[in-house]
Amino acid sequence: MLRFLTAGESHGQALIATIEGLPAGLPLTADSINAQLRRRQGGYGRGARQKIETDSVEILTGVRFGRTLASPVTFLIRNRDWENWKTRMQVEPVSDPAALAAEEPKAITIPRPGHADYVGMVKYGHDDLRNVLERSSARNTATLVAVGAVARGLLAEFGVRIVSHVVRIGGESAVATDSITADALEAASEDSAVRCADPAASERMVALIDQAKRRGDTLGGVFEVVAFGLPVGLGSYVHWDERIDGRIAMAMMSINAIKGVEIGMGFAAAETPGSQVHDEFSPGGPTGVQRLSNRAGGTEGGITNGEPLVVRAAMKPIATLMRQLGSVNLQTGEAVPAFAERSDVCAVPAAAVIGEAMLGIVLAQAFLEKFGGDSLPEIRRNYDGFQATYRSENDRES
To answer: What is the DSSP string of 62-84?
Structure first.
């Protein structure tokens, strides 16, 4: 079983992740992870924090000479801003309260609407909301992207490729790209400041972000992640928690600020006749059976069906606004504006990269459940054997 844990605070010393269940022999270097970390920090509309941090990973365990050992892989991403937060975020008990009281920023007692501040304080009994926001911060998605980079490396060994693009920011939408290839989609989205494959929509989205910034406001949007090259058979209909679409939805909803997920036609299927929703079969293709469309988005009955897996996620606007919303000082009970800490205007392009990572993690977990072994060559034999059997069965039937 592939599983992982992450740890760390936004202004603490570092972010940490441990991955267990990787097979022996998987190629893995810091460079492959750092490439994804750089992509997470990009995108038009990001805030000042991205200028402070230049994320890079240090692999501490589980890898020798560029290949995994099958033991747990542990890596660390240092917070470069830690030098400015050593006293305020120290691990040791406070020995000099006066010195701590002189530190900036002070204890936070004013929750921001839309954040985990208030509910976290109530749940855990904190009197300083920094104890909540440090871990609930989207800064911690750096570890998810790093873990996702490893998972995607495993999938890439078997021809699986994951690409994302932004399809909406605020009220501006991109033209649909249903038939675009993985190469074209990746090239177009990476060439855009907002990771949108539609150049005209990309320009309108940039202008919209500029307008929001001038107002002291923030914007959300929708991104789409597509996995190409998946085999039939990942996931299961046997139990509710094994359905691949359910697992994907949970993973996407776990990303900060994501409020909705759909696969394939998604919500549009609810208002469309069945004759225009379901994907008809036809003879042909390498397995003897092919689809005439991909409205289901790559899954049926909780199992991947061999078509591109298409997932979209809706992100709400960032909850920290420079034009402060109304709040309450939890210490005094008085009505006050919510506090503002440096923030993005729009983080949808970055969220798309995180979405790639989370999809990669879920698919890698399901892949190892289906084809797993102790080493990469063993997994390859299992995978090739299944593909050969599956195709030969179709050959016989045809």
So the answer is: SEETTEE-SSPEEEEEE-GGGGG
What are the E-state strand segments in 209-300? Answer: 221-228, 232-235, 258-263, 281-283, 289-291, 299-300
In this structure, which long-range contacts are made by residues 331-334, counting pairs with CB atoms below 8 Å and at least 24 apart in sequence?
331/109
Express each pLDDT in 270-289 by its tens digit.
999 999 999 999 998 777 88
Give me the chain's average pLDDT, please.
92
User: What distance in Å separates the CA atoms of residue 15 and residue 377, rounded to the nearest whole number?
Assistant: 32
* 269 secondary structure, DSSP code: G
Residue pLDDT, tens place only, 378-390: 999 999 999 988 7
Cis peptide before 72 (omega within 30 of 0): no
pLDDT tens digit string along 217-247? Answer: 999 999 999 999 999 999 999 999 999 999 9
* pLDDT of 398 higher than 60: no
Tell me the two tokens of residue 393: 């069965």
- DSSP β-ladder status, 161-169 and 172-173: antiparallel
Angle at CA of residue 229, ends 365 and 312, nearest 5°: 70
Confidence class for position 87, pLDDT limits 50, 70, 90: confident
Listed as own residue / partner, the contacts of 246-252 with beta carbons closer than 8 Å and 24 or more positions apart are 246/302, 247/362, 247/365, 247/366, 248/309, 248/311, 248/359, 248/362, 251/358, 251/359, 251/361, 251/362, 252/311, 252/313, 252/355, 252/358, 252/359
Domains of the chain: 3-91+105-389 (3.60.150.10)
Q: Give the separation between CA 197 and CA 150, rounded to whole angstroms.
A: 26
Buried b (16+ CB within 10 A) or exposed e, 302-338: bbbbbbbbbbbbbbebbbbbeebeebeebeeeeeeeb
Closest Cα to residue 292, out of 283, 302, 301, 300?
283
Query: What is the pTM (predicted TM-score) of this model?
Result: 0.94
Q: In terms of DSSP H, where are the helices of the chain? A: 30-40, 49-52, 97-101, 117-124, 130-136, 141-156, 182-190, 199-215, 244-253, 348-371, 376-397
C-alpha span between 242 and 396 (Å, rounded): 30
Q: What is the CA radius of gyration of the chain?
A: 23
Sign of the alpha-carbon torsion through 280, 158, 18, 358? negative
Distance CA 44, CA 334 (A): 37
Q: CA-based diameter of the chain, in Å? A: 81
